[in-house]
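Structure in, sequence out. Go:
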């Protein structure tokens, strides 16, 4: 019995269709959802989101956001959701290096919001690089 999955970012609807299961990086660890799952709302952390369509596993790198799970539908709202083919490894590495340099050069006690934004950027970059490098090994 499939369930509906919708993955949405501020720029676009990344995916909408029936899936067999979903595994997402929740704020408390990886969360798996099958059809008929108990309703819940949870935070999504940067990492790897997997779902199965017609027996084939699809993978995305996702950023921060929220997921709503009902017995019939899973909705994921994230600030980033990209496939392996959409990731330019060199650009992501360069962006991560710039973010790390920025983080090292600021006073974290005076700029807590800026530190949090830079750390979020680094986390999203790591999620993308992990997926890209994993797919290269497969």
């Amino acid at each position: 019995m499939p369930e509906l999955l919708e993955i949405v970012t501020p720029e676009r609807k990344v995916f909408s269709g029936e899936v067999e299961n979903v595994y997402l990086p929740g704020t408390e660890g990886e969360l798996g959802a099958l059809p008929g799952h108990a309703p819940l709302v949870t935070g999504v952390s940067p990492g790897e989101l997997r779902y199965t369509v017609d027996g084939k596993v699809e993978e995305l790198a996702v950023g921060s956001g929220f997921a709503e799970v009902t017995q019939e539908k899973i909705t994921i709202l994230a600030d980033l959701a990209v496939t392996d083919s959409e990731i330019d490894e060199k650009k992501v590495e360069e962006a991560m290096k710039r973010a790390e340099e920025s983080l090292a050069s600021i006073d974290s006690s005076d700029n807590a919001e800026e530190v949090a934004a830079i750390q979020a950027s680094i986390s999203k970059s790591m999620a993308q690089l992990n997926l890209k490098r994993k797919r290269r090994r497969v």
